[in-house]
Amino acid sequence: MAKKDKRLSAKADKAKGAVKENVGRAVGNERMTAEGRAERAKGDLRDAGQKAKDAFDR
């Protein structure tokens, strides 16, 4: 997978998690809110890892 693909995938996870978290809050579903938070955190970690790799590649 190319660097851009990995970065886009991380951003997609962050966006999907944020949407899921907000929908969960809106409907009062704590489980959905927690899943959204977890997905967003996963995206944040993947994005940070990719940024670190990019820093070493320069």
What would your notes on this structure say?
The chain has helices at residues 3-27, 30-57. The protein has 58 residues and is mostly helical. Helix 1 (3-27) runs antiparallel to helix 2. The protein is elongated, with a radius of gyration of 13 Å.
Write the layout of secondary structure elements.
Elements: H1 3-27, H2 30-57
Helix pairs in contact: 1-2
Beta strands, count = 0
The termini sit apart by 19 Å
Helix/strand/pairing category:
mainly alpha
User: What do the pLDDT scores average to?
Assistant: 90
Give the C-alpha Rg: 13 Å
Helix content: over 70%
Which regions are unreliable across 5 or more consecutive residues at pLDDT < 50?
Answer: none
Q: What composes the largest sheet?
A: none
Shape by Cα distribution: elongated
What is the beta-strand fraction? under 5%
Strand/helix succession:
HH
**SS field, number of helical segments:** 2
Can you summarize this structure?
The chain is mainly alpha-helical and 58 residues long. It contains two helices and no strands.
